[in-house]
Amino acid sequence: MARRALATPVATGTCPRPVPATPTPVPDLDDSSLLGPTPTPAPDPDAVVDPLLESMTAAAAANLQACWNAADWDAVTAILTPRFLQTAFGIDTPEMAEQAKALAALDLGPLRVETIGPVGIWSDGRGAVDVLYFRGRGNPVQAVAARWFLIAERGVVRFDEEVLLLAPPLGDRVTVGFAIADDLRPMQWNDPTGGQISRSPVTALHGANRGWLPHTFLLEGASGETLGILTLPPWRQSDLVLLDLPAGTYRLHDPATAGSELVLSVTG
Description:
Nuclear Transport Factor 2, Chain: A, Immunoglobulin-like, 2 domains, 17% helix, globular
């Protein structure tokens, strides 16, 4: 199993100049669809983690936070691999300039990595850490619990994939579910009341992807600003968790699928 230890906060700092990525062996995964079905890695119980890898990973997380908050998207794309960008944000382009442009267009707000756990080694040769981070300008912020897989390239760690985990208890929660399929049916609310919920300290939009294609969902405010994002691989489900979502009307949609749009109404 992956090692368990107390998670630690990520230090604040300044964004360093990006280090050019160098080709290194990576997991043998099919690049034709980075979100397509792939063998699920498992923790390697016999692997010994180099302490240097722990410090490199902590530095990479601190650099990611600093560069994100400095809006240095070129530096951010030097820390995140194309697979991470696709699994976390649905950005599907190998060109770093296009990746940076897509991140800037999302305009998701400041990033704060609250905790990062110890590095574990997995059966595909990659390392991984469990993280909890918050992103947004406040009222609301998105809370994300995830496993970040990572690879090392000549002394530099790059985060290679994001796998969502169940968020820890963050307060009283209201959950509403929605689903999408690939047969051209529109997105649907799963709850009998549809997308009408009461205001709560924690709002969870539980998404289910019931098709063979990946989907990325955006929650937008009245002015079109992006408040949260959720990317689901085929046949997966997870939560888009928001803290302190005010009363109001919001748009939940998949920009890549015509007609995939729902209205969320928060009262109270």
